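pls ignore typos typing on phone
flavin-adenine dinucleotide + seq
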Amino acid sequence: MELNSVKDARINAPETDVLVVGAGPTGLTLACDLVRRGVRALVVERADDLFPGSRGKGIQPRTQEVFDDLGIIAAAEAAGGTYPVGMIWKDGERQGEHRMSDEAQPTEDAPYNRPLMVPQWRTQEILRARLKELGGDDVRFGAGLTELTQDEEGVTARLADGGTVRAAYAVAADGGRSTVRAALGIGMTGETVDPNPVLVADVRIPALDRDNWHMFPPAAEGGGFLAICPLAGTADFQLTAQFTDGTHPDTSLEGVRKVVAARTHLAADDVTEVRWASDFRPRAAMADRFREGRVFLAGDAAHVHSPAGGQGLNTSVQDAYNLGWKLGAVLRGGAPAALLDTYEAERLPNAAQMLGLSTRVHRGEERRGEATRQLGLGYRDSSLAVETRTGLPEGALRAGDRAPDGPCGGGRLFDAFRGPHFTLLTVGTDTELPPLNRELVRVHRIGAYPPYGKGVFLVRPDGYVGWAGEDATGPGLADYFKLVHGER
Ligand SMILES: Cc1cc2nc3c(=O)[nH]c(=O)nc-3n(C[C@H](O)[C@H](O)[C@H](O)COP(=O)(O)OP(=O)(O)OC[C@H]3O[C@@H](n4cnc5c(N)ncnc54)[C@H](O)[C@@H]3O)c2cc1C
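k done
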């Protein structure tokens, strides 16, 4: 598709601040985050409804923290559940349990420490409901973007429903085959992780118990690994089957029944329903850049991973969370547009790291565990990470790191962080504070607390330490505020 000029259409196009293209997890997360900052966001979606499948079903601990901040963690927990233990089957006999990931218990500084299973369609419903609750416009369905142009002041888009929209910025959250990315001429560089296609389907199998994630290693004659996972909060199972014998997945009810009967002890008609099915070849690829002028790429439009390790949806949500506050600060807070440059600078290396991790998990070279939980991810190398203390011990919390939870007054630090503001946190010091715009920055003082050490920490709206100093007079704090808030 070409980037056609749509000069005439600009004149009558309704205005919005941010045009969000695609109502997947990325687009919906971004819209929620923007709307709660008073930014107008219009989500346009090519399909007539939200995506119906369970595919990205693992909500990692870091994403649970994001959902806590967005006010939807209770809904996600109520809709989902924990992962069941794997059970290896052979010739109709249970061979023993198999744990997919290293276990971790919740701690004071990391209250969410295990993946939560929520089918992707359910997560999307929760995000859409939250968007409406926050006062945002509902998704405009049947309105795929067909053309996009940009100029110095904004972007103009034509939609498949005949409409035209003018916005200050656009975000391509339109998935791995992104129309917007293609229109901008941004390439994807990557590799096929596995040449064998994979069938993924949401099925009903009433005869199968829901206590385990049932795993059927390939028989000697081949065919590929097959797994059937009970989907928490539903009566469905998510079935995945590799096709290593050169055949191609058949997504029909008959096709799914055939593969189940051939590779498990179940009978073909034990599969009573296929509610959604698709097939894919695991790829790891990343867009060559995440921004072109006033258009940003986020989520699968910017990077695609193997589903192994459950990183795709999570990395996508975090792109949106990184971009949301920055767009809000520029559009509503008076921050210089240069703040938006930090989106690609922070997220591209992060996505590259995640691509490698997903590929290693897919190939069995790394177990799911600490890295896949995503709590260790941060932005220490970013220009937005200003660490002014010296001589910090190994392992100390530094600017750029995720800000841990902990006690704060009668509540929790995560309660103090929740919302669109910055938080200036003093830990174990009664240092004087400079004059602050209290609408934009909330101040909390806590006593010495080991996960933080001692000092003053400016926590960004997305929960990372932006600036850290021994006291609030340290160098760079005023400049930091100029970058994220302008002169206000
Ligand atoms: C088969 C499959 C299995 C997967 N399994 C897992 C898994 O087990 N774990 C995991 O973490 N991740 C998994 N993923 C990845 C995960 O689903 C994605 O990372 C996640 O959906 C990315 O969200 P997104 O919002 O960026 O893109 P998407 O969810 O793809 O959403 C993009 C949206 O944009 C819409 N759209 C497309 N073009 C246009 C247009 N021109 N105009 C308007 N709208 C448009 C689409 O209709 C869609 O609704 C899987 C992906 C696939 C394809």
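The mean pLDDT is 91. The pocket of flavin-adenine dinucleotide is lined by residues 21-27, 44-47, 51, 55-58, 120, 144-145, 173-175, 179, 200, 278, 280, 299-300, 307, 310-314, 316 (CB under 6 Å). more later
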